[in-house]
Amino acid sequence: MNKHWWQEVVVYQIYPRSFNDSNGDGIGDLRGIIEKLDYLEKLGIGAIWLSPVYQSPNDDNGYDISDYEAIMDEFGTMADMDELLAEANKRQIKIVMDLVVNHTSDEHAWFVEAKKGKNNPYRDYYVWADPVDGQAPNELRSAFSGSAWEFDDASGQYYLHLFSKKQPDLNWEKSDVRQAVYDMMNFWIDKGIGGFRMDVIDLVGKVPLEGITGNGPHLHDYLQEMNQATFGQHDLLTVGETWGATPEIAKLYSDPERHELSMVFQFEHIGLDQQPGKEKWDLKPIDIAELKAVLVKWQTELGDEGWNSLFWNNHDLPRMLSRWGNDQEYRVASAKMLAILLHMMKGTPYIYQGEEIGMVNTPITDISQAEDIETINLYHERLAEGYTEADILTSINAKGRDNARRPIAWDASENGGFTTGTPWLALNANYQEINVEAALANPQSIFYTYQQLVQLRKDNPIMIWGDFELVSTVDEVFSYYRTYEGERWLVVTNFSNEAQPFTAEDEISAHVIDNGESVTTLKDITLQPWQAFVVKVN
Ligand code: GLC
Ligand code: CA
After folding, report:
1. Nearest CA to ligand 1 atom 12
2. Number of the ligand closest to the Cα of 80
3. Could you tell me which residue ranges the Glycosyl hydrolase family 13 catalytic domain spans (predicted)?
């Protein structure tokens, strides 16, 4: 396998709305990001995945795009974007753009045209279907509740929206649509971006009238075509969001010989605390043995036919520290343990904004405190289905997307220094304690563990290329070796609130990193709750 820059870096995800507000309107923006590039350089990351900054009416906070080649007014101008690229490049940081092309906004010029009538040249840029017996064409559901079909009075047809009604699905079967997407991608490539994160890319091969949404028959033909027409000649990071991927499916996307993407985000581990066959809102406790089995499978099955992405968090997921860590008594220890466990695995690690300072979930007590369309729709749907309000709020507090979208606290001043105005979404009430300034001032903070992990990766090829091998332990302990060119590292982590036993025959030859306690022997030791360490062994 050829080596690529995107295997060596750590990527940092920015959700611009919540990152840093430069002009006091309560909404994070591009100039706010530019102001914080020195902070990101200090963390050491090599790329930023920027959630969408394009023109959008914000039905789904920028994932509903009305113009792919313009910047959202609230975020700034194209000149600001160009400056962000230049300033990031100066610091050896690449910018990976979010590519949202399964759907557009209903306010995109293509859809405005398409709605004008069946004969409009843009009509079949989208997916239209006639009613069946006066009803929607089939039972397909929107990810944001309700039917995926919306009736258009004017033409008497339905259009498809796998997300909100304001996110009509593009028709990828039409080659003009694909060509328009490739032209737009080349517009951004020509600006010198570092790549694309591809939103729900597994859906673009859909055959909706046959009920097929994910992994459609022509999906990989389209991606090969896209690769050739756009980024194939450049060494860009391309990462597909693929919810249903198994290792076999992931290889189809990321086997270098197939010329599609660099890697995918797989979500198998993310689904482990939901009841099988139900929705993410239907909770069940995480079983660490199951989690290990899934992560080990991904570590070992891709081989040279793919490359892993490593993540605990993103803008759609609750904060992992609150979810499977311990955000109370062991907040610092468990945050560092999660970081060490993840960054020591094989693949490209992603840090979601605020993870590096140990930000936690923000429970709500009333639906009026929610901003996210998915959460609000779910609330009304479940209320109508007879769930109690308390049940629904429990699910929302565990899984709702607003948890990850609370503004970043930069210091202990009002609104955490995020804005001088009124934040679009309130900060977590703990911002006086958990904020960037406090983290930077404390050499023992979670921030410095992340910084150390990023630096270790730069200095030690074993972290990038080493083989992975699980060590057998009690269920709550997750331990593995990485081995590369005669060197061997042992990673030991306790994924629980209780002390746990651990033993290995190896002799320690050097310490690499730990989250508090360093060890002198590996024989018959007791791990403290959430303890994590990495040692070089003979
Ligand atoms: C992806 C995004 C999510 C968005 C959805 C529709 O899952 O990550 O935020 O709502 O696609 O674009
Ligand atoms: Ca602003």
Report:
1. 63
2. 2
3. 13-405
**Strand pairing report for 128-129 and 157-160:** antiparallel
Residue type, 202: D
For ligand 1, the distance from its centroid to the CA atom of residue 61, given in whole angstroms, is 9
Ligand nearest to the CA of 72: 2
* Proportion of the chain above pLDDT 70, given as a percent: 100
Tokens of 63: 């994932």
Cα atoms in the 13 Å half-sphere on the side-chain side of 528: 13
By annotation, the residues acting in catalysis are 199, 241
Identify each DSSP E strand in 445-494 by its residue range: 467-470, 477-484, 487-494
Q: Ligand 1 in contact with 149 (CB < 6 A)? A: no
One of 3.30.365.10, 2.60.40.10, 3.30.280.10, 2.60.40.1180 is the CATH number of 466-537, namely 2.60.40.1180
Which residues have C-beta within 8 Å of that of residue 105, sequence separation ≥ 6? 56, 57, 59, 64, 65, 66, 111, 166, 167
Residue 519 one-letter amino acid: V
pTM: 0.98
Domain 7-104+175-362+430-449: which topology?
A: TIM Barrel (3.20.20)
Contact 105, 65 (CB under 8 A): yes
CB neighbours (10 Å) of residue 357? 21
- Mean pLDDT computed over 414-440: 98
